[in-house]
Amino acid sequence: MELDISSILSRFPFEGEFKDAQPINEGLINTTLVADFGENKYVIQKINTNVFRNPDHLMDNIISVTEYLKKSIEAEGGNADRQTLRFLKTVDGKPFYIDEDGQCWRSYVYLDNSYTISSGCSLNEIYEAAKAFGNFQYLLGDFPGNELFETIPNFHHTPSRYNNLLKAVEENKAGRVDEVRDEVQFFIDRKDNTCVVTDLLEKGEIPVRVTHNDTKINNVLFDGDSKKAICVIDLDTIMPGSSLYDFGDGIRTSATFGEEDDEEAIGLNVEAFEAYVKGFLDGTDGKLLPKEIELLPFSVILLTQEVAMRFLTDYLEGDIYFKTSFDKHNLARTRAQIKLIKDVEAKMPQLVEITKAAGRS
User: Fold this and answer.
1) For position 4, what pLDDT does the model report?
2) Nearest to 278 by CA among 102, 134, 107
């Protein structure tokens, strides 16, 4: 990556003598570099404004949440410098710098002696990651989630995702409806699933909470010495929502066999589910309501159904949203996620008992 960042560096209150800057996480949503200033390191990111169209709202959410987290961590006797991201405002006190090309840049302190995990996770690592996401819920348990902006409107509004699918079927832009009638019927048969959580939120029977919305295990930093999870990262999708969204997607991405497009191998790993639910409930430490705990197993179906409908919608619209690696990739993803839903449905009695036991411990 060739990038002249001298003007960007001058806009932030970095301490030390600049040595170099190296790109990390290339290919993800934001352009990210680590700037080395000797004893200090900083992360510099270009916000992808094609995805996050209102960077002011995005950064308002992140700053509000991280400042609240800092106070909560300190009140619990923790180390806020290690347990949450610390964003730096520009030298003129703004949350990001806009360069001459109109690009938005932000920065936060790099957490040294830490690492992420992408695959091949042990049960203990799954437990630790789930505990970190649960602790994220615990520390923000009294934060008024409704005060946050929806940076991606209707992101987890599953009834909207269902309606989008029906619209894609009706319009049939890519002429593919005839080959996916069984898949469409699968989701029609499970229409009632889509409104369970949204109805409870609207009725006030479960609370609106701060939702991370991207609870993959690689969005948790682990300490290089203790090997324990210490900090939840990638806060761009923080929005008002339900704790069930974070739990369900955490299971879908961290407690399953096979890749999300592998219909042959995919399935729910019950041992990993047990590790995850124990970690999540240990992390939340009593903050979840009984109704939220009761619905944790169901949330796995809900979030898997949501993403499967999104894959199928994109397939019907001609593969315009998700990146694909081969012909009919979105259809393969859809069918794999349908298989995962069926596997979770078959194992539901076992998952309910595991969750009840974890809730009692």
Assistant:
1) 67
2) 134
**Mind listing the pLDDT tens digit for each residue in 342-360?**
999 999 999 999 999 998 8
Q: Model-level pTM?
A: 0.93
In the structure encoding, which two tokens stand for residue 70, read together?
């800092």
- HSE-up (13 A, CA, CB side) for residue 128: 19
| Residue 152 near residue 211 (C-beta atoms within 8 A) | no
Rounded-to-10 torsion of CA 123, 235, 322, 169: 100
* Angstrom distances, CA of residue 241 to CA of 13, 155, 158, 219, 237: 34, 9, 12, 18, 11
Q: 271-295: buried (b, 16+ CB within 10 Å) or exposed (e) per residue?
A: ebbbbbbbbbbbbbeebbeeebbeb
Q: From CA 311, how far away is CA 315, in angstroms rounded?
A: 6
Do residue 147 and residue 80 come from a single domain?
no
Strands 31-37 and 20-24: antiparallel
Cβ distance 299 to 247 under 8 Å? yes
Tell me what the mean pLDDT of segment 115-130 comes to: 92
Exposed, middle or buried: residue 247 (CB in 10 Å: 0-12, 13-18, 19+)?
A: buried
Q: Give the residue-averaged pLDDT of 57-65.
A: 96
Structure tokens at 30: 């934001």
Under DSSP, is residue 238 helix (H, G, I), strand (E, B) or coil?
Answer: coil
3-state secondary structure (DSSP) of residue 109 = strand
Q: Is residue 293 situated within a structural domain?
A: yes
Q: Are 108 and 162 contained in the same domain?
A: no
Q: What Å distances lie between residue 244 and 32, 160, 162, 247, 331, CA to CA?
A: 30, 17, 18, 5, 26
In a domain, 117, yes or no: no
Same domain, 168 and 78: no
Report the C-alpha gap between 263 and 328 in whole angstroms: 13
- Where do we find the tokens 């949203």? 321
Nearest residue to 226 via CA among 119, 43, 118, 79:
79
Which tokens sit at 277?
């639910």
152 in the same domain as 83: no
Are the CB atoms for 27 and 20 separated by under 8 Å?
no
CATH of the domain at 292: 3.90.1200.10
